[in-house]
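so my prof wants the structure for this chain in the tokens format not the other one, which i didnt know existed until like an hour ago. anyway here's the sequence
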Amino acid sequence: MTRADGRWARVDALFAGEPPAPPVDLRPRVRRLQVLVGVAVALDLLGMLVTVVPGAVMTLWAWLAADAEVAHIEAGGAYDEDAAAAVLGMRNVARWAMLFCVVCLLAQAWLLHQGFYNMVWAVLLETVTGIWGRLA
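here's what i got, hopefully its the right format
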């Protein structure tokens, strides 16, 4: 039999092995994680005036997404080393943002208990009413 025969081609394919999978491009995922964490921290900071809860939800979402990506990397997938390091870094940033969020929630609860928000919103309402009265 010649090597051109179909049976030999199948045997060659069977024992030749497959080439390693190309590295997965994580840049879009890293960019998405960066945007999620950035928006979450911004919401945490701005949320101190009203509520930190939207920022906390966004921070938790970013943390879970980063943790899922790290689980894929640690499972032995073919990932680009630089992108994998970036994902690991984003998981650490998300973890610190989550800790910051918990501290913000505790600080907000204390400020609410002290009556700080009542005073701030009363002053803000008085200021806006005064400006509106001058314009009308």
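also thought this was worth mentioning. The longest helix spans residues 81-114.
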